[in-house]
Amino acid sequence: MPQVNCPVEMMKNKLFVRNISFKLSEEELAEIFSSYGTVVSCSMPLDRETGRKKGFAFVEMGSQEEAEAAIRGLDTKSFAGRDLSVSFSEPKPRQNR
Questions:
Q1: 29-81 pLDDT, tens per residue?
Q2: What structural domains does the chain harbor?
Q3: 3-state secondary structure of 71
Q4: In angstroms, what CA-CA distances link 73 with 50, 70, 84?
């Protein structure tokens, strides 16, 4: 039976960060995460109607190892009065319209 090459699972280096203080900027959040490796990108979505931050962000690290280190180091740590929740980002389920 021939061997089938399965695609390698994508590296998990994108993080979902919840419970962020509305006072933190993307630059400040990226600086916090840079202690654990290279920050490739950092985005804090805004509410469409109000233009205010939603209190969560996506941070992409340079590698899976750096992402894991950031989770270990930052999950439940307090910044600007709020305890961060840091986990791997999961793809948003597609909705049928």
A1: 999 999 999 999 999 999 999 999 999 999 999 999 999 999 999 999 999 89
A2: 14-88 (3.30.70.330)
A3: helix
A4: 33, 5, 11
